[in-house]
Predict the 3D structure of the following.
Amino acid sequence: MDKLLNQFLAVAEAGTISAAATALFITQPTLTFNMRKLEENLGVPLLVRSPRGVELTEYGETLYQNGRLMRRLYDNTLNAIAHQRGRTEQGLRLGSGYSWWTLFIRDMVLDYSRTYPNARIHVSLGNQLRCMDQLLSGDISLFVAHEIEGLSRSTGARMVPLTRVGQGYFVRDGHALLSRPRSIAEIEAYPAVTSSLPEVRHQRFFEAWSRTTSGSAPFDQGKYVFASNSLAACLDYVERSDAVISHTEVMADEFVRRGLRRITLTEPTRQNLIGIYILQERAEEPRVAELIARLREAAGAVLPPLD
């Protein structure tokens, strides 16, 4: 793919010239010069400096959205060529939240490795926004996660539904909230812990947010006393404090095994949709379709059926 376009995408995603230069292993003055050269070639301004780094102009937003699509098509083309050159067993590259890995993806991956013993397998564990970032970058073929509400259609991603699950609230053994059934309002009065804290750079995935200079409000991150992309670290914190972690109720047995206890509620929780995210342009690929079928079969054995 064109060098200047690739560098522009790096700047747009990093949010600063310096961070992008570090990621690209080039100097900051070189990258600044190249961005000015790209603007001269196109005849329009693409970037505007701000106290937080750089933001995209309206022209920059258009180039960014289309440039990501071009990058995916370019990467897909290279992958297809590599397969034509003799790869008979493609590796497995998928993403998942910790819950789904524990419940059914782990066993599915082991079955896959027995079917394709020479295939290389890569599984990325993280929250749904990190997985979406990896999907759009071409690092993974698909991922299993909660529904991402408000997701921009410009991402080109869609969800294959699997099931609906409710939320549970968990605390350490002996916590005051365990003495009787509690309302959600009572629970939310205590410090909260999350393994799915959104990052500002992921706001570009949403319809209601724009990377242009006209709108760039950060996510509200003040709700949580502790956050980590490691669920194990979150559970360690909850075990040793009065904090509460909210998580899918299907993980209740696993959390109890870790020493936590589930709070009894006085009201039902919302049922959230769980599914497989894929890129629309790859939905009909035989290997992707095969992987979706394997995931659906594995999920159906342990998760409630979709109403």
